[in-house]
Amino acid sequence: MPGEDGARGGGEPESARVARLIRDDILDGVRPPGDRLVERDLADELGVSRVPVRDALKTLVSEGLVTLRPRTWAVVREFTASDIADLREVRSALEVLTFKLAAQRHTRAGLARLRAALDAELAAARAGD
């Protein structure tokens, strides 16, 4: 049973739990871009009141995953070609930085772990796994 802060026995606030569940569904493709997110339906589906759903949707809006439609419902954000181009640009920059830092900060133990992980990946690929 939720306490005054909306947290259940595990200590996670109800709105945070609801946001996590909806976020996971969006990122896993269960709720595709353009999918309607109706407070009442989500509350019924997740077994909570509308208040934590409303708070969760606000969180997801601030994260850029959801767009609110005033007085109606929310929708899973649809990304434009420009959004995708921007994300690719950021990803490319992060990949370059990642490799640069890895080259500068590597250790023998780290290289050994990397080689072991690569060998495991190659073995799995050869086995069709």
Please give the structural blueprint.
Elements: H1 14-27, E1 36-37, H2 39-46, H3 50-62, E2 66-68, E3 74-76, H4 81-105, H5 108-126
Antiparallel strand pairs: 1-3, 2-3
Give an overview in words:
Residues 12-79 form the HTH gntR-type domain. This protein is mainly alpha-helical and 129 residues long. The protein folds into two domains: 14-76, Winged helix-like DNA-binding domain superfamily/Winged helix DNA-binding domain (Arc Repressor Mutant, subunit A); 81-126, no CATH class. Helices cover 61% and strands 6% of the residues. It is built from five helices and three strands. It has helices at 14-27, 39-46, 50-62, 81-105, 108-126; strands spanning 36-37, 66-68, 74-76. Strands 1-3-2 form a three-stranded antiparallel beta sheet. The chain is elongated. The relative contact order is 0.09.
What's the mean pLDDT score? 91
Please tell me the CATH architecture of the largest domain by its name. Orthogonal Bundle
Distance between the termini: 43 Å
Q: Count up the helices.
A: 5
Q: State the low-pLDDT regions, or none.
A: none
CATH C-level category of the largest domain: Mainly Alpha
Number of strands: 3
| Helical amount | 55-70%
Which structural class fits the helix and strand makeup?
Answer: mainly alpha
Widest sheet, order of strands: 1-3-2
Assigned CATH superfamily of the largest domain: Winged helix-like DNA-binding domain superfamily/Winged helix DNA-binding domain
Strand content: 5-15%
Based on Cα principal axes, name the global outline: elongated
CATH topology of the largest domain: Arc Repressor Mutant, subunit A
Largest sheet descriptor: 3 strands, antiparallel
Order of helices and strands: HEHHEEHH
Rounded Rg: 21 Å
Q: What is the domain tally?
A: 2
